[in-house]
Amino acid sequence: MDAKKVLDAKGLACPMPIVKTKKAMADLVAGEVLEIHATDKGAKNDLAAWAKSGGHELVKHEDEGEVLKFWIKKG
């Protein structure tokens, strides 16, 4: 997946992964992809819900051991 920007949210607890994702998405234009790395298990549901409510698309999600990776396309 070709991401325009990578956000390291590892070690952050809710709601910080969402706060940092929102800030990072502001720097992107519609259609660009943000890759997020998080370790908070709640991020799976939180980021999916946040993306949907903000008009963005959760393109892909992967678990790599302790690290959860998400790719969100800006709407």
From TrEMBL:
Family matches, as CDD domains: SirA_YedF_YeeD
Residue ranges constituting the UPF0033 domain according to the UniProt record: 7-31
InterPro entries from the UniProt entry: TusA-like, TusA-like_sf
Lineage: superkingdom: Bacteria
Membrane-spanning segments: none
Family annotation (PANTHER family): SULFUR CARRIER PROTEIN YEDF-RELATED (PTHR33279)
Family the entry assigns: Belongs to the sulfur carrier protein TusA family.
Protein name: TusA-related sulfurtransferase
Taxon lineage: Bacteria, Bacillati, Bacillota, Bacilli, Bacillales
